[in-house]
């Protein structure tokens, strides 16, 4: 019964993983600007997706590998669009560092087992949500951020956590906690009115908090 339930949860997580990465890609494809979107966050997420896929394969956990694998194409596509359309390029050193950390954690499994890889991968989503949240909270215009993508990530995190409990995959439990907290922080920023955000975070001189890049494009 438990195995059957774990399979159902894994399948649901795979379908959701394929879906929650699409809204951000579609939104960027339809916009001329990537305002408020972090290039570093998307690069980190792409690297993490590949790492999770490899981890799942090596651990013989199909419902760990498959959800990660199906999320890679849309995430990588959003990364390319964010780069081309002026997304935030701050902290671009993070993806390079993250690639080294993931690689070392993977190699350490040869000598010390999967413990380090479990912790590193479990917290890997922080490399997506932290830069994304910081960029969103520092940006006066968050019109290019797809709220639906972050809402779906919370559901995905809950499913991943449920599978982690049922199948005994500790990395999933860490992922679920970090992804939920980070996604809520981003959704909170999106939900805050521009004039309220302007009081919380000082904007550059000449920036009107009630005018977005999209509004300026329409007025031009």
Attribute tags:
mainly alpha, membrane, 11 helices, PQ-loop repeat-containing protein, disordered C terminus, 220 residues, 76% helix, transmembrane, transmembrane helix, globular
Structure commentary:
The protein has 220 residues and is mainly α. It has one domain (2-213). The protein contains eleven helices and no strands. Helix 6 (115-122) runs parallel beside helix 9. The protein is globular and about 50 Å long.
Q: Are there runs of 5+ residues with pLDDT below 50, and where?
A: 205-220
What percent strand?
under 5%
From the spread of the alpha carbons, the general shape counts as globular
Query: Got a strand count?
Result: 0
Total domain modules: 1
Average pLDDT reading: 83
Distance between the termini: 61 Å
Structural class: mainly alpha
Secondary structure tally, helices:
11
Report the order of strands and helices. HHHHHHHHHHH
Main pleated sheet:
none
Gyration radius from CA atoms, angstroms? 18 Å
**Residue share in helix:** over 70%
Protein name: PQ-loop repeat-containing protein
Keywords: Membrane, Transmembrane, Transmembrane helix
């Amino acid at each position: 019964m438990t195995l059957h339930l774990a399979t159902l949860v894994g399948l649901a997580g795979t379908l959701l993983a394929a879906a929650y990465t699409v809204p951000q890609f579609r939104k960027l494809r339809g916009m001329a600007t990537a305002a408020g979107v972090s290039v570093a966050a998307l690069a980190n997420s792409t690297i993490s997706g590949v790492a999770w896929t490899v981890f799942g394969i090596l651990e013989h956990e199909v419902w760990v590998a498959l959800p990660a694998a199906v999320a890679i194409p849309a995430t990588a596509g959003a990364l390319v669009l964010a780069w081309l359309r002026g997304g935030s390029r701050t902290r671009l050193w993070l993806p390079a560092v993250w690639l080294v950390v993931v690689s070392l954690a993977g190699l350490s499994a040869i000598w010390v087992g999967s413990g380090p890889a479990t912790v590193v991968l479990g917290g890997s989503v922080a490399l997506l949500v932290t830069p994304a949240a910081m960029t969103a909270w520092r940006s006066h215009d968050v019109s290019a951020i797809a709220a639906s993508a972050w809402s779906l990530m919370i559901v995905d995190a809950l499913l991943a956590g449920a599978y982690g409990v049922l199948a005994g995959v500790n990395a999933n439990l860490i992922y679920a906690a970090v992804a939920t907290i980070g996604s809520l922080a981003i959704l909170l920023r999106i939900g805050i009115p521009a004039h309220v955000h302007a009081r919380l975070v000082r904007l550059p001189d000449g920036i009107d908090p009630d005018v977005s890049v999209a509004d300026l494009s329409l007025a031009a």
